[in-house]
Amino acid sequence: MSRHQPWQGRIALGGIWIAACAFAGLARSHDHHMDKIEEGQGVSADPIDSILWTHIFIQGLAWGILFPMGMVLGIVRSRWHVPVQVVASTLAVLGYFIGHKHKGRQFADNVHAHFAPWVMWVLMSQIVFGVYLRLHLERGFHGRIRKYAVFAHGIIGKLVPIVAWVQMLFGGITMLGFCRDDHLGQCLAHFIMGSAFIAYGILLTIVMLVGQAWLRRTGRSQEFFDSAVIAAWGCVNTFTEHRWGQAWVHNDLQHTTMGIIWWCAGLLGLWLSRNRDGQPKRNLIPAAVIFLTGWAMSAHPQTLMISAMTHTMFGYTLMAAGVSRLVEICFVLKDQPTASEDGRNPFSFQYMTPFLLCAAGFLFMGATEEQMKMLDAAHVDHVSYVLLLYSVAFLMYLFTNMLIHLYGVDRILAKADPETANGTVYANGHTSVRDVEEFELGDITSDDELDTPNDDAPLVPKEGRTH
């Protein structure tokens, strides 16, 4: 009998219990009292009680911190992947039930409540796949479907941070009663575009630190992918920023022309992303688009002083990101894809563009009409507000870099060294990773598999294995 089986059994039973609790939560009806909500409002005037604050704290910890950590630990096949995911899942289910027990502030029918069951279905699916893989059912039919279970478990695990981000945004919107009726369109624009800038900054950081090998394999430059997304996004904005059939207003015209310049510039960026020999070539078109977008947004007309200054700072931040990208390509990297052949040790200046994009995203998400009116009524000045949003951006970018470091910035390219490519065991319990795209539970294979040499075996040498 495998020495891992007692521990695997406890993990499996724990997973089954968590999944059962999640399913019970989905099946359980919940009455939302709305008798104190005034007509036309999304929330009552009651304060948020301690139970709801506890729900926010627990879910923020589980979905915002532990699940992303567990995802990265799974990619690097760390022994800590399963314990972290079990703790996160337990907290998520606990927080779900606590959220149904709150008193105080009441909420009208809202997107956060409607999306919650889908989030729990994602969690339950991930638990089911995880438990199945831990049971090591590898004979007959199970042997044929195991690779599909591994694939599904990995895909869902990587979707969890995105789903969590959306649900946390829904939670904040619901808590304040925002983005209803006529405000919905503006909210969608701000939160989608703001999230896109943050995602852009995170992806640039990932490619800069651990994605250079992947980028070389594609035979494309970074600007090819940037320009493709810019062109596609511009096409969407060109036809969605104005309600066709109605009179044009000043903001509609600005938003539509901004979409036009995006797809025009994106097409040029795609063309310039290769040289005459068909080799990948860097260009400045995405940097120019970012700069021009920032310039346009800095002059966006607003009715409130705090709104105008917040949009201006958002525009300046984007302009700074565009200038930083230009300086990085022309003067820091001198048209090279990275500072070194293996992508290690980037220049300090290379962190500026991704961070500024993240900061711009938070500034834009925090500049909706309802948020500006609330802050103006509370006599909050734009300087304090901008500094607060920048503080959030610093923490977000810190967490992003911590996760990338956890992934193993100094080990992802270690396979180039034959002495480490076969799977060195490190002091922190991680092993070197064969490929960025791999995603598997740590130690999901049995002892018999470890003793059998094959391409799917974990990257831990037999003599270095610990139990």
Automatic annotation (TrEMBL):
Q: Where is the composition biased (Acidic residues)?
A: 444-454
Report if keyword Cytoplasm is assigned.
Answer: no
Q: Which residues form the DUF2427 domain?
A: 37-136
Keywords associated with the record: Membrane, Transmembrane, Transmembrane helix
Q: Where are the transmembrane segments?
A: 53-73, 80-98, 118-137, 149-168, 188-211, 284-301, 313-333, 345-365, 385-407
In residue numbers, the region (Disordered) covers 444-467
Kindly indicate whether the keyword Membrane belongs to this entry: yes
Task: List each copy of the Protein YTP1-like C-terminal domain by range.
Answer: 164-407
Q: What is this protein called?
A: Integral membrane protein-like protein
Species of origin: Trichodelitschia bisporula
Source species taxonomy? Eukaryota, Fungi, Dikarya, Ascomycota, Pezizomycotina
